[in-house]
Amino acid sequence: MAIAATTQTVPALSPLAALKRSVAAIFTGLVNVAEANPRYLEVQKLQAMTDEQLAAKGLKRDDIVMHVFGRWM
User: Which candidate, 35, 62, 26, 34, places its Cα nearest to that of 46?
Assistant: First the structure.
């Protein structure tokens, strides 16, 4: 089985490349801020639980986000 890949590069000093790096850095920063949020970490912890563990806490998988972010939504 053969796989072929092509890439298109933009010269490192072009204005388009600078804009692309800037936008990528902004989005990376936003993702890092969101992932550091304690509510996000709580959602991750609850999503890692089994349905039985969630039921013991009185939750359903569909209700996790509303449970964690309830008053903000």
Answer: 62
pLDDT tens across 14-39, in order?
Answer: 888 889 999 999 999 999 998 888 99
Under 8 Å between Cβ of 20 and 33: no
Alpha helices (H) along the chain: 15-35, 38-47, 51-56, 64-69
Contact 69, 40 (CB under 8 A): no
Backbone angles phi, psi at 72, to 5 degrees: -90, -10
What pLDDT score does 4 carry?
66
Question: Which range among 5-19, 35-49, 52-66 shows the weakest confidence by mean pLDDT?
Answer: 5-19
